[in-house]
Amino acid sequence: MRGRLPRCRFANFVVWNHRLQTPPYRYRRVSLNRRQVRYEPDGSFRIVVAHRDPGTPNWIDPAGLTSGMLFWRFLLPEEEVPPIETELVPVASLA
After folding, report:
1. What 3-state DSSP class applies to 86?
2. How far, in Å, CA of 21 to CA of 91, rounded?
3. Each residue of 42-73: b (16+ CB within 10 Å) or e?
4. How far are the Cα atoms of 10, 14, 22, 37 from residue 44, in angstroms, in the given order?
5. pLDDT at 95 over 80
6. I want to staple 34 with a disulfide (CB 3.0 to 4.6 A). Which of 11, 27, 39, 88 is the partner?
7. What mean pLDDT is predicted for residues 53-81?
8. pTM score, two decimals?
9. 25: confidence class by pLDDT, cuts 50, 70, 90
10. Are 75 and 5 in contact (CB under 8 A)?
């Protein structure tokens, strides 16, 4: 996923299962907030959701889930939320 975060008090991305529960996060990174994200030089971000570490920053581990939701939260955005682009690619193409 690629995009930019709006100016806001809080922003995060989290993986949810079909019951709107976060997978066990104690040992796996299943979410990122705006302070944890590593940004591109132009201020944009790229987040990768994959079952194995592709060796890129901002990797999210779905913790074995094969279905669920990718959920974005923005608290008190000061501007319109820019669109977030998603693309399905082979993990090997990311290295």
Report:
1. coil
2. 25
3. eeebbbbbeeeebeeebbbbbbebeebeeeee
4. 16, 18, 25, 10
5. no
6. 11
7. 94
8. 0.88
9. confident
10. no
**How many angstroms separate the CA atoms of 29 and 21, rounded?**
14
Distances (CA, A) of 12 to 27, 33, 73: 18, 4, 5
Residue 78's pLDDT is: 96
Which of the four pLDDT bands, split at 50, 70 and 90, describes residue 24? confident
- The label of the residue with tokens 């682009």 reads 85
- Contact in structure between 65 and 23 (CB atoms under 8 Å): yes
> Beta strands of 6-68 (E only): which ranges?
10-16, 31-33, 45-46, 48-49, 59-60
| Nearest alpha-carbon partner for 57 in 41, 77, 72, 69 | 41
- In angstroms, rounded to a whole number, what is the distance separating the alpha carbons of residues 56 and 75? 27
Rounded to the nearest integer, the mean pLDDT of the chain is 94
Query: ∠ at Cα 50 (12, 73), nearest 5°?
Result: 15
Alpha carbons 93 and 19: distance in angstroms, whole number = 32
